[in-house]
Every structure is written in C-alpha cells, then in structure tokens.
Design goal:
The protein is α/β, with parallel strands linked by helices. It is built from 2 helices and 6 strands, in the order αβββαβββ.
Length: 126
C-alpha cells in the first residue's frame, strides 16, 4: 500500500497566504509544471515529514516478487495533467505496464523495463 500524505491545516493556511500574496502581485500559477518525485526501495519507511526534497522510503514487497527490480521512481503530478504526462511518456518510447488504478496512478516502463509510477495528486476527484 502506498503511503498517503495529507496537508495539515497549517499547510493549507500557508498555501492560501502565498496564493493571496501572489495574486496581489499579479502573478499566475502554472501547476502543470509541478511534480513530486520519490524513490522507493523495498524495505521500511524513511520519509521526510517536511517533504523538502525527493522522499525515500523502504517497503516490503507483499508478496515477494523475485526477479523484479526492487527500486522504482514515483512521480506525483497535478491530477489535471497526469494523463498528459502518461501520454508523453508513451510517446517518448515508454509503455504502460499497469493502468488498473488509473486515473489515480499508472505504472510505466522504459524499453529496458525500468519502472516509474506516475500518480495524480490526491486532489483528483476521480
């Protein structure tokens, strides 16, 4: 099961204050450029609760999957651009290895079978 991160009330208040200040300055956001990148290693959790950079966590594979790569990259993007990012990865030579959880996340693979999970942020209403 994937770890889920929830914003606190303080996080939401800070985001609202930053947005208000940006609006007052005439700035516009472009969330299509945002992404969170994580690296997963099958063992146990070690996630930075402040989310200051790529998070690294270790988890058990249940059930164990011999012969499968044990490290993969997770990329989280705004929900409204997730399918566009999947299409871009496929257009660049990747393939969809698993879309059973779409539109929440897809497992993509490179031509050499390296895995990447691309997830829509929890703001998704799907």
């Amino acid at each position: 099961m994937r770890p889920r991160y929830r914003a606190s009330r303080a996080d939401a208040d800070l985001a609202a204050a930053v947005s208000a200040e940006a609006k007052a300055l005439g700035l516009e956001s472009d969330p299509s450029q945002l992404a969170v990148i994580g690296i997963a290693v099958a063992q146990e959790a070690g996630v930075d609760p402040q989310r200051r950079g790529p998070h690294l966590w270790f988890h058990e594979l249940t059930p164990p999957r011999p012969g499968r790569g044990r490290t993969h990259v997770d990329i989280s993007v705004p929900a409204d651009v997730a399918e566009t990012r999947v299409a871009a990865a496929v257009a660049a030579g990747g393939r969809i290895a698993d879309d059973s959880a779409a539109p929440k996340w897809w497992t993509l693979a490179s031509p050499d079978n390296h895995g990447v999970d691309l997830a829509a942020w929890a703001d998704s209403t799907a």
